[in-house]
Write a structure and sequence with these properties.
five-stranded parallel β-sheet, 401 residues, Helicase, Ruva Protein, domain 3, DNA-binding, three-stranded antiparallel β-sheet, Arc Repressor Mutant, subunit A, 16 helices, alpha/beta, Rossmann fold, 8 strands
Length: 401
DNA sequence: CCTCCACCGGAAAGCCGGGTCA
DNA sequence: TGACCCGGCTTTCCGGTGGAGG
């Protein structure tokens, strides 16, 4: 009986009308036919890279712009076109793309070089070898065929923050040891990190600099319309939906990625509720959902010690309205450890965990001075009230012995 | 104006589990 | 098997420090 019900459920699901025609178009990995509002930047990149077709070494490029301003997309798009020409004309040229933020893939010097070598067909074990050895292997792969390489390092700031500029330094001078020519394209949404770079690396990396300004609301609107045309079925977008999405995204620094995500989730919400059209209400709902999912996702993937810390903060907040200090959190945390039979970490460590929560936007922690009574952080919770019960449940479950 | 609290936060080093290689 | 490597997580050490209270 139950099976029967489930079967019909699936059948109904299968036959259900969706507002989507091709959802992938709204994902950030999708590269559209034409890229709107980035003509200038596309041209700049193309101009700089073009010499590669004549076997000259293009200058290194440093690309900077806030999140969702089309840096990655434009770079990928341009290099893709470049490759098409080089393939047609039989010009040896290779583009390697690496995202330095991807955990366990390219977020350390070893892994970055290993990743690059892997893309050139060398297989490198994920660990165990001296980094030096990996470099040698990479070099051998480069030399196997003399040609131009364009190396795209996305989110390069993450790499620098985590592991310093060693890798970058080595990469910028790798040309001295090889027949092939390597050009770097560094992409970053943070510009301050450049200051901490070795001057040699800095000047080498930013032989050319390209800035991606944020989109304004109108530009985001046209981007959304361009994608929506392919992504959705005919006539599913309600009055003012695109406008509202764009307005939300423009509100905080014109992030096109967020706008697209908002639109996509709004569509999913509409689907789930069996609406044939997406309305502006769905957007509000989508915004809340994205928020909640983000928080829940962050917290569930956090290790146990972090849960204990957060639980301590939560229970402190429950009783009072005034602010919470690090010392108090640590006291509660310690007693919690005792109760749950967990090893106790140092206050120094807990302090770091709290700032991590702060950076993740789960908690707001500001350093203040209480004069005579010392210096500490004031901590408050930033989790939307609607998710608090869920979070509490998650924490309680993981905190239990 | 000086003191001195209760932490902050950088640097370095240790531990441990994952791995390679000869 | 032992010497060695990498990377994540912690601990240790320790020099700051904003501002209320004296």
């Amino acid at each position: 009986m139950i099976e029967k019900g489930l079967e019909t459920f699936f059948e109904v699901f299968l036959n259900k009308q969706s507002v989507f025609f091709d959802k992938r178009v709204l994902q950030s990995s999708y590269i559209p036919e034409t890229i709107l509002h980035r003509e200038e930047q596309t041209k700049q990149i193309a101009t700089i890279l073009a010499p590669a077709l004549k076997k000259d070494k293009p200058s290194n490029i440093f690309i900077y712009g806030k999140t969702g301003t089309g840096k990655t997309l434009t770079t990928k798009y341009t290099t893709q076109k470049l490759m098409q020409v080089s393939a047609k004309e039989n010009i040896p040229l290779k583009v390697l793309y690496v995202n330095c933020k991807l955990k366990r893939s390219a977020d350390t010097e070893y892994r970055l070089i290993a990743q690059l070598a892997t893309e050139l067909g060398k297989s490198i074990p994920p660990t165990g070898l001296p980094t030096e050895e990996v470099y040698k292997s990479f070099l051998r792969a480069l030399n196997k065929q003399k040609q131009n390489y364009i190396l795209i390092l996305d989110e390069i700031d993450q790499l620098i923050i985590k592991t310093g500029d060693n890798a970058l330094y080595n990469l910028t001078r790798i040309n001295e040891n090889t027949e092939s020519q390597i050009s770097l394209i560094g992409i970053s949404n943070d510009i301050v990190f450049v200051d901490n770079l070795d001057p040699r690396v800095r000047s080498s990396l930013s032989e050319e600099e390209i800035i991606f300004p944020p989109y304004n609301a109108l530009q985001i609107q046209s981007i959304l319309k361009q994608r929506a045309e392919i992504a959705f079925n005919r006539d599913v977008l309600g009055q003012g939906v695109v406008e509202k999405c764009a307005a939300y995204a423009a509100r905080d620094h014109g992030d096109a990625r967020r706008a697209l995500e908002l639109l996509r989730v709004a569509g999913e919400v509409a689907d789930r509720k069996n609406y044939k059209k997406i309305t502006t209400e769905h957007i509000d709902e989508a915004e809340g959902k994205i928020d909640r999912d983000r928080v829940i996702d962050i917290i569930t993937t956090q290790p146990r010690q972090y849960h204990l810390v957060l639980y301590s903060i939560l229970s402190l907040q429950a009783g009072r309205s005034n602010s919470i200090f690090t010392g108090e959190v640590y006291e509660i945390y310690k007693s919690l450890c005792g109760k749950t039979n967990t090893s106790v970490l140092t206050q120094r460590r807990i302090s770091d965990i709290i700032s991590e929560f702060d950076m993740l936007g789960i908690v707001n922690a500001k350093v203040i001075s209480k004069g005579r009574y010392g210096r500490t952080r004031t901590i408050s919770i930033e989790i939307p009230i609607t998710v608090l019960p869920i979070i509490k449940k998650i924490l309680e479950e993981s905190t239990r012995v």
